[in-house]
Specification:
The complex is a heterodimer of chains A (about 375) and B (about 525). By secondary structure, chain A is mostly helical. Chain A folds into two domains: about 70 residues, no CATH class; about 300 residues, Orthogonal Bundle (ABC transporter involved in vitamin B12 uptake, BtuC), CATH 1.10.3470. Chain A has 16 helices and no strands. The longest helix of chain A is centred in the first third of the chain and has 32 residues. Chain A is globular and about 75 Å long. With about 525 residues, chain B is an alpha/beta fold. Chain B folds into two domains: about 190 residues, P-loop containing nucleotide triphosphate hydrolases (Rossmann fold), CATH 3.40.50; about 190 residues, P-loop containing nucleotide triphosphate hydrolases (Rossmann fold, 3-Layer(aba) Sandwich). Helix content of chain B is about 35%, strand content about 25%. Chain B is built from 19 helices and 22 strands. A six-stranded mixed sheet of chain B has the order 6-7-8-3-9-10, with helices on both faces. A six-stranded mixed sheet of chain B has the order 16-19-20-13-21-22, sandwiched between helices. A four-stranded antiparallel sheet of chain B has the order 2-1-4-5, with helices on one face. Chain B is globular and about 70 Å long. Classes of the chains: A mainly alpha (about 375), B alpha/beta (about 525). The interface between A and B is large, with 32 and 45 residues.
Chain lengths: ~375, ~525
Amino acid sequence: MSKINQKSHFYLVILEKITPFIAILGALFIGSLVILLMGENPIQVYKMMFGLAIGNRDGWGNVLFRATPLIFTGLAVAFAFRCGLFNIGGEGQVYVGAFLAAYVGFTFTSLPAVLLIPLTIFAAALGGAFWASIPGILKAKTGVHEVIVTIMMNWIAASLTFYLALLYKAPATESMKAAGVQQMIPHTSEIAEAARLPRIATILSYFNIQFPSHNPLNVSFFIAIIAAVVIYYILWKTSLGYEIRAVGHNPMASEYAGINIAKNIVLAMVISGALAGLVGTNEVMGYKFRWRQELFLNLGFNGIAVALLGKNHPLGVVLAAILFGILSYGGALVNIFTGGKIPRELIMVIQAIIVILVVVADEIVKRLIIRRKLG
Amino acid sequence: MIHIFILDIFNLRYGEVILSDYLLEMKNISKSFPLVKANDRVNFSVKKGEIHALVGENGAGKSTLMSILYGLYQADEGEIFINDKKVNISNPNKAIELKIGMVHQHFMLIPPLTITENVILGMEPKKSYFFTDIKKAAQEIKELSEKFAFKIDPWAKVRDISVGIEQRVEIIKVLYRGAEILILDEPTAVLTPQEVEELFKILRSLKKEGKTVIFITHKLNEVMAVSDQVTVMRDGRVVGIKKTSTTTTSEIANLMVGREVLLKTDKRKQKPGKPVLRLEHINVINHNKFPVLKDINLTVKEGQILGIAGVEGNGQTELVEVITGLRPITNGKIFLYEQDITNLNPRKIRELNIAHIPEDRRKRGIIPEYSVAENLILGSHYRPPFNRGFSLDFPSIYNHARKLISDYDIRPDDKDNLLKSLSGGNQQKVIVAREFFGEPILLITSQPTRGLDVGSIEFVHKQLLKERDNNKAILLVSAELDEILSLSDIIAVIYEGKIIEVMDVADAEKSKLGLLMTGASQVKKSNEEESHLK
């Protein structure tokens, strides 16, 4: 067969890789129409948004801080997806993992940091892993669809952790005691100093690098990056990843090749859940130092969007999470600086449009490729 | 060189022939896809009322040409004439308007609906605005059925009918839409020998009624049996146009492949050695509580090919799955030499050096999204030399791939190609290469040449015989009787989950096997028994 038209095929491959970027531009364009309808200048709004978000160190710090939990939950969804599993349960796994981290953090207060930090990180991963293992085992043993189970597990996790938060509610502060009122905020006690992750500002100050000390970016961001690298390595460089992806692509052929499908499904869910649980390192160990439900709201669900935008690849997930961080932080600031004329909900609209466009663009490119190849 | 010569002759004749002889003419059709030129200045002409076979290996461009005729693709260049009138077929609806109908290889029927409902789908005759005149449709279908000897019941539900009947429904669908030119894409691929005969009868009656049939195939005996004219394609070009009555199978085979092909395998006599695989009283009951294997006893010896002949769906799939650990055995024992391997898991079975070429290549045999190199280690990916400690050893995986790609001539010869981009024949080569590697002591092969072209079939057959001559034990399951007959030393016939006869290949005749396979002898036997009772 003569090899012709290799060039146009090459373009298609490139096109397939850059669909997310096209989708982002498309979404920004649609967003700008909305801004126009609001009577504002879209160019100025976007300039303000990106300028505030990534035009300075403080902005970058906030963006990466907001990206960190999305990297974890995005990786969680992406990893399970590689095994053919749709883990909708990131939300619940985050709650449980973060709660277990908080529990360890405020319980084993006598341990030194060198022990307590790893133990708390481990607890975060363990909590998420445990929560995800239940739908994993049910899927592997009985074939119950993981989507149904993970959704239900989200509800259980939300209620269970909220109940536990009330059970381990923080004691009243001095001022509350003075005023004679009870602790009304449903959050746990603070974790021990020795369980807290250092802020990046603290670290940079050792090197005399200027970084605002109020910036919430902490070491958890690096844990997220390490997690992305480890996940990449597992998926493509180990026999474990080989098996997990094989099961995801073709379970029948995997079975034929002697791969234990049930084992791999459970393992994929456990690792996925552990990743989601690690969100606790950012919100609990590095930011508020306690468990409070609203900290984690929608992080698990946004992880699905991040994984989709990042094409279920660790590097893509990291980039997509950073983009979402920019939109979220920039959007919040634009809201403030325009005096509420541009609502932060607009950013949520843009995020949603990006996801829809990515899905649509993916399908279109896929069809183009199928049409170009033999049908 | 031969084909160029033939083309020249053809072109000469082309000038002389009066064009109106042809019902359909496709002239200078070219169509390119990103990696291949699927059709390269193809000329294809069909006379009214003939059965025209379009043959070629997989990827020769037959399907592309017919897809262009049916409006699924647009040609880059070239013209189509029907009755000397130039036509533009931009989509299948246009083709149907021009009375061209296509019966695809994979049927598109809705099982819970009746035959009539399936046939009229999309063009229901209306009684009034809302109501379908189903009785009228059924009557018309009945008339069609009688006219062409289809022997179908318009009120039968599709889920209750056999594959052969399903195909007839597809043909009726096309006729119902008024087709004069029928394109059949590899119609016999899914049929039993008896059903093939029935199909040929139908084709002949279509011809008698003045319909024109284009018959895509790569099975040469079928070409000889039913067609009037043959067009042979290779690499996107027409390499020969022959009158069936004046050509031979080997001539067509040589044109298809572009070199001499041995249609017959030459097999050395070999003395079988020790028994390798022994099945003792195997019974399997499936999840519907239905017995799918009944008291199977078989032995495969060293240096021997045991062929399992049978119509598909008579327990072959289950038999293979049982041996390879993919399906639990309800009763009975399996031995490899003296070792009991009953109900071991697939990985343990593989570790005992039992190789398995699965019947459904795409479902079981490969991971289409994995590269050639990755597919070549499937099943041994977890052990040295491909896996060390926790990580895959890529240098040795790649070396392994390079070696097998050159040993088995896998094309294109790039270890990083995704398997889904390879042709069926090359995908099968990947499976064969992987399974034959590492000196297996027992080979379980199921439909090893399904969907392959002549060249690849020859290759797989040679490999199997080579392994046999190396004293390997081979269990061969195939729906192709010719394959069973030419490769096996011993033939076992399976029918409804039972081995009903085991014979030496020397005693096997095709007609006798055909009868055994369809259970005809069983019926006779039970009739005899009954009459004895009386």
